[in-house]
Write a structure and sequence with these properties.
With 460 residues, the chain is of the alpha/beta class. The chain folds into three domains: 97 residues, Arc Repressor Mutant, subunit A; 221 residues, Type I PLP-dependent aspartate aminotransferase-like (Major domain) (Aspartate Aminotransferase, domain 2, 3-Layer(aba) Sandwich); 105 residues, Alpha-Beta Complex (Aspartate Aminotransferase, domain 1), CATH 3.90.1150. It is built from 14 helices and 16 strands. The protein has an eight-stranded mixed beta sheet, with helices on both faces. A four-stranded antiparallel beta sheet has the order 12-13-16-15, with helices on one face. The longest helix is centred in the last third of the chain and has 24 residues. The protein is globular and about 70 Å long. The N terminus is likely disordered. In the C-terminal section; belongs to the class-I pyridoxal-phosphate-dependent aminotransferase family. InterPro entries: Aminotransferase_I/II_large, HTH_trans_reg/aminotransferase, PyrdxlP-dep_Trfase, PyrdxlP-dep_Trfase_major, Tscrpt_reg_HTH_GntR, WH-like_DNA-bd_sf, WH_DNA-bd_sf.
Length: 460
């Protein structure tokens, strides 16, 4: 591949990778800027020149430049061209010199293939509306609430006859309003264990969190602690183990809620990027409308910076919640998200991410299932997997060796309640990585496992 004019680093675009060409180009230009291979204040080639030299369409080059502009790595000067930003304006992905650090921790959504044109158009049209004098309704714009309900119907098969959708300014607000209405100022919450640390921390700020043990089939419904107000589960894809709760346990949860007067809480988009069979009926679909709820956001699909979330609450709690609603998202934000949902942009983004993640999961499985003395969990759905290690290989030792190779992972112990027995493993979040970075991370991981004397299977 020839080098672009006035560009001192090679660009290699592979058309057989799962990442679109614009994502590969963005990642390689970003890496060159972070490493200093593209000097601050140096002039970038034009998109027309870049497209001609690399043999790609100009639209691919434009999309890459737009991403880098949005991230602050480059800046345009009217009538002069595009320049690399000074280090203070850029956002490097690692500190210090040397190779870029690769972060395999969770809660890092993918930016690959982001629908930038649709995003801009939705916000532009939303800005044309005159805001109401009294602000949006406390529970959110009716059109947005209807669009969220329609999306849940199309993706989860939910008919919200006994529930109301309430729009909030963030995930934490949605949890707080729902739990306060159900359990007062110190609700007792049984949380599936292990579970994402961020979810445990959010619930812990609102009440007393008790562990609900999980096995290979998800949360143990026969181990629900006594006197719980709320049971929080992840039935479609229990992170970090990737478990899927069978129908019998979902029905048992619904019966517990009906008999105890408690509330079952589940994520609205649990198992969103599943490849294969569709989701089983949610607990909300199986249970009494008085005792089931959901909380969700578009952080994984669009961006965590979008300050908008929602709760699907029993109608018995909706009126009480609306009376204490804090200020919600701006009217412009609500209008833009309404259009993104109604136009099919969100559904298209989900489909695109699902295809990306499946290709990356295949690479993870191909690499790590070669070790017979370990178990790889959760690598059939979503954008994360857990590697269970033998007791002779402490997870802390593997994590430390990876950090020395500039690869960050999370130990499985961080996903467990402090009173629970932690597992020995590491959790890998890879959905946000480009193909080259994922390959480099997996290479570092296999070298580390080899150094810990974990044998691989040999070819027949």
């Amino acid at each position: 591949m020839r080098h672009p004019q006035r560009l001192s680093v090679p660009i290699h675009l592979e058309r057989n990778l799962p990442e679109p060409l614009q994502d590969q180009l963005t990642a390689q230009l970003r890496r060159a800027i972070v490493r200093g291979q593209l000097a601050p204040r140096s002039r970038m080639p034009s998109t027309r020149t870049l497209a001609r030299v690399l043999g790609i369409s100009r639209g691919v080059a434009l999309a890459a430049f737009e991403r880098l502009l949005a991230e602050g790595y480059i800046a345009g000067r009217h009538g002069s061209g595009t320049y690399v930003c000074a280090p203070a304006n850029a956002r490097p992905s690692s500190a210090g010199s040397g190779e870029t650090r690769i972060d395999l921790r969770l809660d890092r959504p993918s930016a690959h293939g982001f629908p930038l044109a649709e995003w801009r158009a939705a916000w532009r049209r939303a800005g044309l509306h005159r805001p109401p004098l009294g602000g949006p309704p406390p529970a959110g714009l009716p059109a947005l609430r209807a669009a969220i309900a329609a999306h849940l119907r199309d993706t989860r098969g939910l008919e919200l006859d006994g529930h109301e959708v309430i729009v909030t300014a963030g995930y934490a607000d949605a949890l707080r309003l729902l739990l306060r209405a159900q359990g007062g100022h110190d609700p007792v919450i049984a949380l599936e264990d292990p579970a994402p640390p961020r979810l445990r921390a959010a619930l812990g700020r609102l009440g007393t969190v008790l562990p609900l043990p999980a096995d290979g089939w998800g949360a143990r419904t026969d181990r629900i602690p006594a006197a719980c107000d709320v049971v929080a589960v992840l039935p479609e894809r229990g992170l970090p183990l990737g478990t899927r709760m069978p129908l019998e346990r979902r029905q048992a949860l619904a019966r517990w809620a009906a008999d105890s007067g408690g509330l079952v809480l589940e994520p609205a988009f649990d198992g969103l990027f599943r490849d294969g069979p569709g989701p089983l009926p949610s607990v909300l679909a199986l249970g009494d409308a008085w005792s089931t709820a959901m909380v969700g956001s578009l952080a994984e699909v669009l961006t965590p910076s979008l300050r908008l979330a929602f709760a699907v609450v029993p109608r018995r709690l909706a009126g009480e919640i609306e009376q204490v609603m804090p200020a919600g998202p701006s009217i412009t934000c609500q209008l833009a998200v309404t259009e993104l949902l109604g136009s099919g942009c969100v559904a298209g983004r989900v489909a695109g991410l699902s295809a990306q993640y499946e290709a990356k999961r295949a690479l993870v499985r191909q690499t790590l299932e070669a070790y017979p003395h370990m178990r790889l969990l959760g690598a059939r759905t979503g954008a994360a997997a857990t590697l269970l290690l033998p007791v002779s290989v402490p997870a802390g030792s593997v994590a430390a060796a990876l950090r020395a190779r500039r690869v960050e992972v999370t130990e499985l112990a961080a996903y467990h309640h402090p009173d629970a027995q932690p597992g020995n493993g590491i959790v890998l979040g890879f959905g946000h990585l480009d193909g080259l970075s994922l390959r480099r991370a997996l290479h570092a991981l296999t070298r580390t496992l080899d150094e810990h004397r974990l044998a691989r299977r040999t070819a027949a």
